[in-house]
Amino acid sequence: MDDMDEIICPCFDLKLKDLVDAIKKHNITTVEELSEITGAGTICGACNYELEEIVEKYKLK
Fold it and tell me: What CATH number does the domain located at 7-58 have?
């Protein structure tokens, strides 16, 4: 089971739960959309690979 309290983007202190909530609330289907809404991946970019996996796993199908 995924740890919803795991910090994915330390630059913005965003947890997996924050990202999944944004994906569902805004019907996000790309990393670019997720970054625009949350800021994730826009400073150092270290979490971009994880963001791709998260969007693919949690986007509404």
Answer: 1.10.10.1100
